[in-house]
From TrEMBL:
<keyword id="KW-1003">Cell membrane</keyword>
<keyword id="KW-0472">Membrane</keyword>
<dbReference type="InterPro" id="IPR032808">
    <property type="entry name" value="DoxX"/>
</dbReference>
<dbReference type="Pfam" id="PF07681">
    <property type="entry name" value="DoxX"/>
</dbReference>
<comment type="similarity">
    <text>Belongs to the DoxX family.</text>
</comment>
<keyword id="KW-0812">Transmembrane</keyword>
<protein>
    <submittedName>
        <fullName>DoxX family protein</fullName>
    </submittedName>
</protein>
<keyword id="KW-1133">Transmembrane helix</keyword>
<dbReference type="GO" id="GO:0005886">
    <property type="term" value="C:plasma membrane"/>
</dbReference>
<dbReference type="InterPro" id="IPR051907">
    <property type="entry name" value="DoxX-like_oxidoreductase"/>
</dbReference>
Length: 176
């Protein structure tokens, strides 16, 4: 096997490993929010939590966060990877912002965990899934580098809008 083919195979295995870990983690968290799986709060509990954190409207925010994270199942399979990864990155951007006041480290309630998941998701949106994926089986016909960049840009704009609305709601609640 040539050095280039060996490197490509290792890259594809690395992307498979990253996709599986990130996608499965996001899927588990999303289904906690949406369906109460894995001892999660379900949609009503998630909406109550979103309301307490200043996300308005709370139920729509809960559904959006849950679906964005549950799309991690697609990431794990490598199906629609660039768009699904961008959705996960946006959800983790919002989660990291919520945890930002607690500093970096997770043990202090910080942004470490969502930031790492978000950056890994963004990397997958930019790189794509690799050969060992549903997208790869389809010949990567349904995705491309531009799709990843555009999906990530759209997700970032959407997350920024949600965070702006949250900041306004938190400020209004503090003033009241």
């Amino acid at each position: 096997m040539s050095a280039d083919k060996s490197r490509t195979k290792a890259l594809d295995l690395g992307l498979l490993t990253l996709r599986t870990a990130v996608g499965a983690t996001l899927f588990a968290h999303g289904t906690q929010k949406l369906a109460g799986w894995f001892n999660g709060p379900g949609i009503d509990g998630t909406a109550a939590g979103m309301d307490a954190m200043g996300f308005k409207p709370a139920k729509l925010s809960a559904v959006t966060a849950g679906v964005s994270e549950a799309a991690g199942g697609l990431v794990a399979l490598g199906a629609g990877t660039r768009v699904a990864s961008a959705a996960g990155a946006a959800a983790m951007l919002a989660a990291a912002d919520v945890h930002r006041p607690n500093g970096f480290f997770s043990q202090n309630g910080g942004l470490e965990f969502p930031a790492v998941l978000g950056v890994a998701s963004a990397a997958l949106a930019l790189t794509g899934p690799g050969r060992y994926s549903v997208d790869g089986l389809l010949g990567h016909r349904l995705e491309g580098e531009r799709v990843g960049v555009l999906a990530l840009a759209g997700a970032a704009v959407g997350a920024a809008g949600v965070l702006y609305r949250r900041k306004q709601a938190v400020a209004a609640a503090a003033a009241a």
